[in-house]
């Protein structure tokens, strides 16, 4: 007795089963343009070499005797070598012409094209596209996947890493630039915590960020440094570096209230008016109160901070302290701890109060930075964290506008009012 077995047929042919979603997307225009790119680049390089040698291929320079023509020749060709170039047009295989050029000492040197430089494997536009995709909020592996259709598989995660490392030279130049010509009138200082990998282990570091406000109201990033923590020594090192590079003495400071930062400022600019961030202080107040009282505390605090005049602010501050000394002593003590620095903004014209009350200008940068690194969770190094923060602004991924009330920045500060309870 013979048993016959049959193999179940698939519901669709193998070719259809293996098809990908974009396989049927055929663009005649793209295909034609990319097909002509190689010829265009090849012609451009050949013409460059002809101009250098002052004669076409297999040709001699016109005029004069044969001996004079030979003496006047600046060099000679000697074949081609294969070269791969990747651009926004995809990957092309080139036959790079080779030539030896006569030198003044009687020897020869190898000719190098100015269009396709030595060891160049990608165009500047291709590197810019890769770096922009990385900065937009993805990791090295996902950049390769996202740009696969553009580069036709010629992009690996190691290439993305190399392109990103090229940004380092710009980053180092930015850190060493002179600040003598920056008309800075105000500084906003804050730190943010980032998870990075150190010695193959995940750890947290603090990025210390300093933003300046120019005389015309435009905000500008002055420093983004990894200092490990937010101690007074760390902040003083950052500020000393800015001063050493020519930063002028600021007229107003806005801080988050960290003890290390305030001690550093006291040793460097003791007489410069300092504003404690009102948002940070509200968080501190709520942390000292039970949940059932937080809504009421927020309402009273908002009425005080956003009062219309300095006199109203002073009156509501006294009322706040009287009320919360009885209902929750820790809340009143926390407000008193900030002292008059919580209300330094009242010395400015009212048009500037909105921008001077808080460190929100930096907080927005922190939020965008955290959104950007969310896909990576842990950054490969502390240096990468600081460089990435800067690159988001330098590349235009994040922009900063002028501060509110910038037209009155030149107005002198008024004397502080009596806010003591």
Please outline the major beta sheet: 5 strands, mixed
**SSE string, helix = H, strand = E?**
HHHEEEHHHHEEEHEHEHHHHHHH
First-to-last CA distance:
107 Å
Q: Per DSSP, what share of the residues sits in E-state strands of 2 or more residues?
A: 15-25%
Mean pLDDT: 83
Q: In the residues, how many domains can be counted?
A: 3
The percent range for helix content is 40-55%
Number of helices: 16
Notes on the protein architecture:
A hairpin with a 4-residue loop joins β5 and β6 (219-226). The chain contains 16 helices and eight strands. It has helices at residues 14-17, 28-53, 66-72, 124-135, 140-146, 148-151, 157-176, 232-244, 259-268, 278-287, 291-305, 310-327, 329-338, 353-356, 360-373, 382-394, and strands at 75-87, 90-102, 108-110, 184-198, 201-214, 219-226, 252-255, 274-276. A five-stranded mixed sheet has the order 6-5-4-7-8, with helices on both faces. The protein has a three-stranded antiparallel sheet with strand order 1-2-3, with helices on both faces. It folds into three domains: 28-120, no CATH class; 125-173, no CATH class; 182-408. α8 packs across α9 and α12 packs antiparallel against α13 (329-338). The longest helix has 26 residues, at 28-53. By secondary structure, the protein is α/β, with parallel strands linked by helices. Residues 67-71 have low confidence and may be disordered.
